[in-house]
Design goal:
One of its GO terms (biological process) is defense response to virus. Pfam families: Cas_Cas5d. One of its GO terms (molecular function) is endonuclease activity. By secondary structure, the chain is an alpha+beta fold. Helix content is about 20%, strand content about 40%. It contains three helices and seven strands; from the N terminus they run βββαββααββ. Strands 2, 3, 5 and 6 form a four-stranded mixed β-sheet that branches. Strands 1-7-4 form a three-stranded antiparallel β-sheet, with helices on one face.
């Protein structure tokens, strides 16, 4: 199959590519993961007929971390309860009181990351003739 290439230059104030083995505190990988790069490309251009393949991720800035703390709510409202309340037309009882359910979480985030993603796409079975 034919492959078509692209280079995308990304830069940001902060980034967080969460390590799954650290469940309570969010700690970033040192570098963007290939799956994150693929997700970014799919956010720009997604079609069922193509599949993005990451060839290289270039790191343009030194890897630096910053520790931050954020206030979060400890739980989410159950989807079933929300659905029932919407069907009833009455949203009473769905509130989450932040003062009662606040949790402070620490995160280790990347500071001023910059990357160049090199990738190409291949055609999938949904590409047609």
């Amino acid at each position: 199959m034919l492959a078509y290439g692209i280079r995308l230059h990304l830069r940001g104030r902060n980034a967080l590519f969460i390590r799954p083995e650290l469940t309570m505190e969010r700690v970033s990988y040192d570098v963007m993961t290939p799956s994150a790069a693929r997700g970014i490309l799919e956010a720009f251009h997604w079609k069922p007929a193509i599949a993005w393949v990451i060839d290289r991720i270039h790191v343009l800035e030194p890897i630096r971390f910053q520790q931050i703390r954020r206030n979060e709510v400890g739980h989410k409202a159950p989807a079933g309860s929300i659905r029932q309340a919407m069907n009833r037309g009455d949203l009473a009882g769905l509130q989450i009181l932040v003062d009662e359910d606040r949790q402070q979480r620490a995160s280790s985030v990347l500071v001023a990351p910059a990357y160049v993603i090199e990738a190409h796409f291949t055609l999938t079975a949904k590409a047609g003739p």
